[in-house]
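Worked example

This section walks through a single chain of length 545. The input is the sequence exactly as stored; nothing has been trimmed or padded.
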Amino acid sequence: MSAGGGREAAAGREGVERDIDRSPVANADVCVVGAGPAGALVADRLAADREVVVLDAGPRFDPADRLARQERAIRPSYDRPDVWDVGGERDAHSNDGERFYPLNHARVKGVGGSTLHWQGMVMRLHEDDFNSGTTRGIGPDWPIEYADLRPYYAEAERELGVAGASDNPYAPPREEPHPMPAFEPSYSDSLFAEACEELGIDMHSVPNARNSEPYDDRSACVGYGTCQPVCPAGAKYDATVHAERAEERGATVIDRAPVQRLEHDADRVTAAVYATPDGEEHRQAADAFVVACGGVETPRLLLLSESDEYPDGLANSSGTVGKFFMDHLFAGVGGTLDEPTRQNHVGFYTSACDQFYDEADAEVAPFKLEFFNYAGPSPVEQALTGDDWGDELLGRLRDGYGTHVAMGGLVEQLPRSDSYVGLDPDRTDDHGNPVPEVHWNVGDRALRTVERANEVQRSILEELGAEIEWVAGPDATGPAYHHMGTTRMSADPDAGVVDAECRTHDLDNCWIASSSVFPTGGAMNPTLTIAALALRVADDIERRL
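Given that input, the structure is written out below as tokens.
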């Protein structure tokens, strides 16, 4: 496949460099920074009628390597960042908050971005999530309503390919069925269902960005079970789908081209300055710019682009660039039953509970519950961790596999000014730029809600008759790796970085397509909202160009 301008689109395996033209594109209408789901969708939408160039900091991974990456994922000698070559000086970062944030566990640098290793759950935010201050009495309202995003949610579901059903009575209103039928409940879902019925707790299906049947020239899920961090089958959506489609429509995607700074005057961005593996720097000029490099690298790029006009960082007249860093907190309970639960046949969950979500107020945050299909170790993981063989190994696998059961859940964290992404003054990356410094602080409301979620989870497992072996509660919670809030959306230019159209308040030709624009996080996985906002950004750019 050839990229726009006669460029070679295919790159070799990571570490093997081919003769690829990474020079700037002449007469570009739009420059997109980042080839994750937001950037790829924007590029795909605009490429048919505009000259579009996409710059991504990481490589273009070879799809043929995915089986090898899957093998890395199941071997105990590899950590999760190793699967997608994350780490080293390029990906250096630091922490200086009340809670440690394992940033490299949460990201992939390369064409496709975080969707290369995500689990693939795609829920819409609820109506009250857009009006938290008004309806819940805490947090800011978004400058847009659910109704403004509703048609884009439907379009995003078609673009990503979402399998789902209309069996969730707590979901926000929708206008049409999901593109594919939902995945059937798992065997362990049926065990949970009996307990939930006794307790008066509702279960329903989960919308998944993976194919329950062939869709968009991609196969149905074949059950590898390693969805997070790698899907060798391509049944789970990742943003290479839209990056490649954008190229087919004439866009140019340049990999291994980390943007160092954005050049600008008082009102407009004029060029993205990027580095290439040969040590050169180039200037990509364009009429419009879209920053789509996630909730950490987006504010970092703006802060690195400080100037006399913007001494505190580009687009930062409000002083909020990097501020209000949020993530979802994890709540979980797990244990074992004295009967088979058939875990690890698939690497995603098929049933959930949103029953308690809209009970949120100023004291208790929204949360959702998840019924896991991958509790406990898989037989492959067990076999690779021991030094026994034959009957001894078989006995250990039989004793250790198949009776585990677990629930998870996501809890909203409120935006806090003391939770933010800044620049580390003492550490630099492979290009000599200050690395991101994450200050992750979590409030009492979120911790109270983790405890509340644990109460519900524990009641279900106890009703099942499970022996509870672990609890991820307020003292043991961690992030869900959903970076949000660092360039938030606001009607008031003094209160945020972008307006209701995700265009920066300070710059006429710069948009941000990312979960970094979320004023609040809700408790739903953010990617579908990211995709819907990206499609809305593309429409706004098209209108203005």
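What to look for: Residues 52 and 251 are 5 Å apart (CA to CA).
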